[in-house]
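<discrete_fold_record>
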Amino acid sequence: MIDSVRNTVLSIISKDNRGYITPFEFNLFAKQAQMEIFEDYIYTYSNAMNKQNARLNGIGYSNIVRKAEEVLDLFRPDPLSLTYVVSQFPLPSDLYLTQTVIYNDSVEVDKAPSNILNLLTSNMTSPTTSYPVYTQNNNSIKVYPLTIVSDITLDYLRTPVDPKWTWVSLIDGAPIFDQGANDYQDFELPIADEPKLVVKILQYAGISIREADIAQAASSEEVQDKQDKQ
């Protein structure tokens, strides 16, 4: 999909005499565009779930929730067993959002409130192995009671892998797409998001365009490609 997106972007830029986006610039804009759309799915899912739980247009919001879930599931790895290191459990480097923390395959570990000290010093609320809690920083979580040093599993959303349009050489000043490069990476979003990616990449490049114009540009690009192959 990434080559199709780039061809459409360049076609629109060329048509409007807006200059040129280098492969380096395209990859930077592509990364930002993918991340923005990914975060939109999280927001849409959360917003639709809140409205569905409030019994507001349940059927419609149910469809929105299901669609967002299908996309977000692409970024939901299998539950990960964490390894205890110096009083903490380091988190995976690709973590974007913690979903749930499970102890001993059965007990959900709640996230501790901000007043963790009050919680720990109270006989009534002090964490136990039956009701554990955790705190989280950027790189790790700490589970209470501190006697828990194993059997912690993380369910999480990972950060999308940065897309990268790769090329091999220059012919007449034009880079040639190389899908076989070791560092090649396509977008991780559904194919249906291609128009959104094109729009956002153009916006990052300082070019405004309606989504309806993208289909026309993409169609023109496809016709030109077929003619070039004849």
User: Anything to note?
Assistant: The first helix runs from residue 2 to 15. The radius of gyration is 23 Å. The chain is about 40% helix and 20% strand.
